[in-house]
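# step 3/5: fold
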Amino acid sequence: MNKRHGVRYVHEGKFVAKVDVELLEDETDWSPYLSVEDGYKLDDVRDALKRGDIAAAAKLARVFALQPVVVSQ
């Protein structure tokens, strides 16, 4: 089994979190996949963003605020 670095993005409301994860690769059809711990980390980040607890999400990931862009013609 090989491990490599990966990134997953979690989008909730006006926030996006960039979560670092390890991707596990093997010879199965499920490859590459996340560890259980990384799956829980993604869930924790999503739950924190849903609650509006940006500080908790920022402990596990880099959090960005989305801002609409106005385009006039």
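# step 4/5: annotate
The CA atoms of residues 13 and 50 lie 8 Å apart.
# step 5/5: archive (pending)
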